[in-house]
Amino acid sequence: MTTRKNEPRILFASPSVSMEALPHEILSLICSLACTDAGETFKCLRLVCKKFHDICIPLRYQTISICTSEGAAFLSSRLLATPSHLRRIYHLHITLPSSEAKDLYRDVKNIFEVLQLSAPTVETLTFSCPNAAVSSTVIARLFRLRFPRLEELALYGLYPLPDARIYMPRLDRLHLSGNRSPSGLFQWGRLKEAFPSLTHLRVSGISSTEAFCRELEYWLRSCRTGMGNLDGHPDHETLQLLSDNDDGPIVPRLVLEHLVIQPVWQVSTGVPRAGRNNKFSSVTKSLEGLVSTHRQWLDDRRVDGKYGLQLVLGESMLDPSASYVCDVLHRDWVSRLNGGLGLWKV
């Protein structure tokens, strides 16, 4: 007869003991996946025991967010004094502080020291430069840094066209915001030359720009002429439209799975509200027409997703301030770190 006293007993180890029994490699992977917040998880894990402390030390700078001049200066000095094997930075968010002119040079210097030290390992980067006086120069300088492992990049500021040389060979997702009229973005094959692995492109903040809509229309139509596209049979209307383009050749080598265009209503003083509404409505209707035409072309050929164009209207982006856009990009960066879709959810 079996009594309760002599029944087999199952012993449950405490969570800390069972975790410590795991191999070092598995613990390192678990900690690496857990430490994707602003540093709170890292601080807690390294206090568990000496083994956890030793595992977490290389993860100290895995995820970094910089939003102040003090933070940029502190991190720059710390990284310069840290051996390369202990500064593996995978996820980086930077908002260039809106500094006084006398402090701007120092802040840019500190920010680019961080960028250069993180470039060999960083995989996701969000960079906001709300200072219109320097954003074009600063972002152009960022485009000339080599990021061999970068897969996702989000930029806010008056961005120029990227350098045609390949500095980001693995970049898969690119979000551009801050340039209300990025004419030339789809010309000369510049994007494909600079980012050969690009599959997702989002262009936010398009406002009152017929030139950009026309350029996008050229590019979409050229994708259907057979120059590196799907059916290989150009139609007469498309060839005529391409021949009428005086802004330079459209090279349809960029193959995207997702293209998101987000218009925004630009508020300017001295213009009647009805006029502003009409201007915004005109741009929106132009983009909606391009989307509708392209989707119909895809449906007619039963093409599943390739060259698919998705349009997000700008109801939530009416006259956005710089601080608002910077906050949106930071939330998107955090969402992507936690496995969400962020701004790619359309």
What does this structure look like?
By secondary structure, the protein is an alpha/beta fold. It has 3 domains: about 15-60; about 60-160 and about 320-345, no CATH class; about 180-315, no CATH class. The chain has 12 helices and 8 strands. The chain has helices at about 15-20, 25-35, 40-45, 50-55, 70-80, 100-120, 135-145, 190-195, 210-220, 235-245, 275-300, 320-335, and strands spanning about 65, 90-95, 125-130, 150-155, 175, 200-205, 260-265, 310. An 8-stranded parallel β-sheet has the order 1-2-3-4-5-6-7-8, with helices on both faces. β7, α11 (about 275-300) and β8 form a beta-alpha-beta unit. α5 (about 70-80) crosses α6 and α9 packs parallel to α11. It is globular, with a radius of gyration of 25 Å. Residues about 1-5, about 5-15, about 225-255 and about 265-275 have low confidence and may be disordered. InterPro entries: LRR_dom_sf.
